[in-house]
Amino acid sequence: xxxxxxxxxxxxxxxxxxxxxxxxxxxxxxxxxEDDLRAALFRDDPVVFAHMAEDDATGEVAGYALWFLNFSxxxxxxxxLEDIYVRPHMRGAGHGRAxxxxxxxxxxxxxxxxxxxxxxxxxxxxxxxxxxxxxxxLEEWTTFxxxxxxxxxxxxxxxxx
Length: 161
Prior knowledge:
Elements: E1 2-4, H1 10-23, H2 34-41, E2 49-54, E3 61-72, E4 76-86, H3 95-110, E5 114-117, H4 124-132, H5 148-156
């Protein structure tokens, strides 16, 4: 079963964020708190959305998808999938596919033109899963990111700072 997250899900989402960070070999990178999640997910104008996957047989939370709206000057409105995670002992039961299908359904229903995400190059199981549902890698695009000191340095160099 796939359903929108509720405030009661925040501790479980946070636990899975930490599990995902462990899997991606970056546990010390998680700086988000439960309060950060609540503030972003459950305000009047949410900046991020989450869906939960629950196992029909056990009712156990199997995974989550955390996403936000983006905009392409070429394609218009879309969804960027920040995280999709299914707990290891629950994989292979269709929870990840169901989460992606729900986001695809939202795109179709709202007229969004794309659903997009990033995956670590070494994560072969995820890459295999994504290609199996029809996703294609964007070989010609490279992701860039500013964080920490480079972000502060550039931000303090901006006019008006």
